[in-house]
Structure formats: C-alpha cells, structure tokens
Design a protein that fits this description.
homodimer, 21% helix, five-stranded mixed beta sheet, alpha/beta, 9 helices, seven-stranded mixed beta sheet
Chain lengths: 298, 298
C-alpha cells in the first residue's frame, strides 16, 4: 500500500481536526493519498490509482526505483484507475518524464480525464498516454510490450457519479467507478480492490465472498462525518462512499478473505485513532486499518 | 525554500543518474520540486510557484500549518507563479480543499493554465480560483481581504516559450516567464526570485545588482547536460534555462546581495555533489546551493 488516505491525505494541509493534529504531532501515523502497487514477480509493477503524492510514494518503496544499471528506466508497467477523482489521477502528471504511460480505465473515466482535465493532450509532448479498457471478464493483464504479466484482471462496475469537475453534459450516468479483481495465474489467489464503493452490488458481494484479499473503501465511518468538520459539506452517500458503519463492516466481517483491509481513509474517520471504539469494532471484525508501507502476499 | 529541485525532483522517479542514486542512498540531500514561501510577519504567507510536492512541503514547514484553534484554515494567502510549467502549477490542484485560491500570474501564463490545463474550470466546483496580474512597477501585495501584506512586489518580464503542453496557436510569443522582485515595506529589503531565466535582460541585471537577496535559476551547469543522460533531450537554452557556467555564475559573482542562492536545480546538475569542482566554483563565487528547508531574513 503506497498510500491509504482519502483525498487531502493525513494530515490535510488546511485541516486541524483531531486526527490531522495527532498526525502532525506524530501520535498517529501520517498517510499519503490512496494508491497501491502490485506485482506477480516482484520486479514488474502496476500501480492502482495515482495520487498527487506519487513521487514520494515511489521513493518510499524501493521496489519501484529504477534499475541502477541503466540511466533512465522504471519497473512501473502501467496504472489502473478506479475512477476519475483528482486524488486518483493527479499522479499521472508526475510520470511524464518516462516512456508512454499505459493507463487502464473504463471509457467514461477516460473521457472525464481527457476532456475535463485534458490529461492526454497535456502529456502528449512529454510521455504520451496509451489507454486500455479493463474487461468485465477475466483477461490477462499485459505489459506494455504485449507479453503476459502473470496476472489476470477484471473490472466490477459500480454505481457512482463523475467527479465534480466534470460537467454533466459531457458524460452519461454510468461507468464512472469500478472495482478491480486481480488474480495470480500461478497461485490462483485473488485480490479485490474497491476504494470507491457507493453501494455493495450483487457482483461486488460475490467478489467479497470469494477474494483471498480485500482492499475496501474506508473513507468514512458514518454518513455525516465530513459535515461535522465542514458545515455544508456533502454526506458520505452524496460523495458515493458507503460508510463503514452503514454496510461495509457487516459485509466484510463475514468474508473468508485472509487479508481484509480498509484503505482510502478520510482524515475525519475515527478508525484512524488507535484507541477509538470504532477502531476496536473494525479490528474485532477481523479487518485491518491499512497503513502506508503495508505489504502482503497472496 | 520549500523545494529546490527542478521538475522531477531529486531523486527523479525514473532516473538512476549519479545524483539520483546518491540521493536515494542518502549521501546527498533529497530535494522536492521548486517552491518557496515568504512572509512579512511570519504569520501570513505567500507561496511562489506550486509544485506537485506541495502537500509534503507544507507539512515539512510548520509555519504553513493551520491554526489548531479552528478546524479548517490556512496561513497561505495566495500563490505567485513565474510561468506555466507543470512543475510550478500542479500543486494548485492540491489546494482545492480550501477557500478561493488567489493566484498571481501574467496574462499569458494564466491563459496557458486555464486553457491548456483547464485549471480554473476543474477547481471551480471545489475552491475556485481568483486571478491577479502582477504589476511591472512596485505595488502593494494584498491579502485576499484587500488589506496590505506589508510587502510590495513587481514582475520582471523575461524571454521564454510557453510550456510544451500549450499549443502554439493558443498564445502569443511574449509574457510566458517572469521574475519577481519582492520588497519589505518596513525594512526596504528586497528579494529577487528568478527560477526560470532564459537570458539576463538589462532589467534583470539591474535587479541582480540591487537586490538584498537573490534566488536564481540553477537548473543546469552546462547546456548539454540533459542530453548526456537522455539522448534526444533538448539543450538548456532550448528549455529557456541559462546554464550556470554560461552566464549566471559570472553575473551573480559580482552582485552585492547578502544571500545569493541557486534554486530549481535539475537532478543532472553537478553542483548537487558536495565534492564536485562545479560546487566549489559556485561557493567560491559567494553563491549558496539552496536546499529544502533553507530559511533567511532580509
């Protein structure tokens, strides 16, 4: 896990809430914004979501450093996006010094990023972007040279709105958010990555019940959490995040996965405090609170 | 100085040059991308350029943290831009959680950022952006509420091209780069900030000879430096950076300023190595190699 916070990170630059202050004082760990890296061989890596903290995240994880044998290179093979939220895509701008950037995203996410953010046009004179659409049925995840990574993957479509920077006329109403299921072809082990979950659909529930490891939307504990810090803010549901206490805790508690981990945790979430009741409830359900630098094998 | 590296930082994610490797090994200090904060009273701060590393830079400098007395706030009053380069503007996206963002930029820089990067439209549903055009003659630098900051400022126009992500038809040929001169109204002390210098114009030379402190373009030591790491790369001149050994070292050597500091230093620049000949030449000329966290008063 390269980063485990929601947009803004922990601490957030303009926030003095109890969690942000505790992180500044060092009494709870700081967290960068949500992103992870995964690999079948430990040498070639894919990123899943790319936050504005990506530069620091790459430096914090030596497996993502270039090979010292040649001057310019990277083990990063591509980036998979779950949606077009700024905290998931701004890091793409930071990869502009390399070769063509291979990005996986559903069509509507791609349209949001290329039209509203002009990302492809901006990056064209630097690295350029090659887009891929993740399949809804398992298929091989390929390296940029077309060879097989040893991993298969599929998208699980989820309900959700486009980010606020996308004008409504630009896009249809579906396809703005997905989860990924990633499988190791050799071991058969599967990872479900679902950092943006507005609702647990039947297909997502099936995946929760089958996956060997689950990284799940831990943005909010309850629906009105952000409004208590910032009056006038939207509710968790309006932001397309199912709160932990209103559905995901119950769904994950029963799941047989060996690793069940909350990620994309907003700075307002009480599970960030080690001594909180909410943290205890999560841990008693067999779910871990993800932290930057956490690693596991499936 | 919040950050002292050119675009990409030190180390750069995909670079294994001698400086990037030394930074990874800890034998020379790492550097985030070019940005600085300045203040007349130590309480209200302006940023000058906003790189993608801004989140980490704010956390590394406690004076920029919010006041714990209220939940959401920031001592950051606005951002001054010298040009539209991605490594100077991507940080603006990271300030979206706050109130309206006050940005100072010449008209052509503003047009580049709003048209090619759509920054104003993207940020509109979050914080919104209020644009200001820096004057060519000294004027008061104002806080967002219209009161006087205690500082005056002016732009010094410089030659230079728009960044590569701007299509040529979009803009004229002038106005894409400026330096800033900032004066403390109480002490009269002046700071020249010039991280993007294609050529030392007569007006810039006048400022070099009068300023009490100078932060200057230290991107490259020599013109072909980047090409040696990445064949096919542009020369320093083509990138609108006057190399240190081809003009700025001589110009700064004679300047009477108390603080003469190179900033915006590319990872290829040999002045980054403490034992290099080039570093010795810079220090013998009375010029410091800026580092992240460096502070001074005028």
């Amino acid at each position: 896990l390269l980063g485990t916070a929601a947009g803004g990170g922990l601490p957030q630059w303009n926030c003095a809430c109890v969690n942000c202050q505790a992180a500044r004082e060092g009494s709870i760990p700081s967290r960068t914004q949500s992103s992870l890296a995964f690999s079948a061989d430990g040498k070639h890596w894919f990123l899943l979501n790319a936050s504005g903290d990506l530069r620091a995240q790459i430096e914090a994880f030596p497996a993502l450093h270039p090979d010292p044998a040649t001057l310019r290179n990277s083990p990063i093979q591509g980036v998979l996006l779950t949606n077009a939220d700024l905290d998931h895509v701004l890091g793409l701008f930071q990869l502009r010094e390399g070769g063509p950037l291979h990005v996986q995203a559903p069509l509507e996410v791609r349209v949001a990023i290329t039209s509203a953010l002009r990302l492809s046009k901006v990056l064209q004179p630097y690295c350029g972007v090659t887009w891929h659409e993740p399949p809804n049925r398992f298929a091989h995840l390929l390296f940029p040279d077309g060879t097989h990574s040893g991993l298969s993957y599929r998208a699980i479509p989820l309900p959700g709105h486009p980010p606020r920077f996308v004008s409504r006329g630009m896009l249809g109403v579906d396809g703005h958010s997905i989860a990924y299921e990633i499988a190791d072809d050799q071991t058969g082990g599967t990872l479900l990555v679902a950092p943006d979950v507005a609702a647990i659909t039947p297909a997502l529930r099936d995946s929760i019940e089958c996956a060997d490891a689950i990284l799940f939307d831990g943005t909010f504990w309850k629906g009105t959490e952000l409004q208590e810090v910032r009056p006038g803010a939207r509710s968790a549901r309006e932001m397309d995040h199912l709160p932990i206490s209103e559905g995901s805790l119950a769904a994950l508690r029963e799941a047989p996965a060996q690793n069940k981990i909350y990620v994309h945790i907003n700075n307002t979430n009480p599970i960030l405090a080690a001594a909180s009741d909410e943290r205890t409830q999560v841990e008693k359900a067999g779910i871990a609170v993800g932290y930057d630098g956490m690693e596991f094998e499936i």
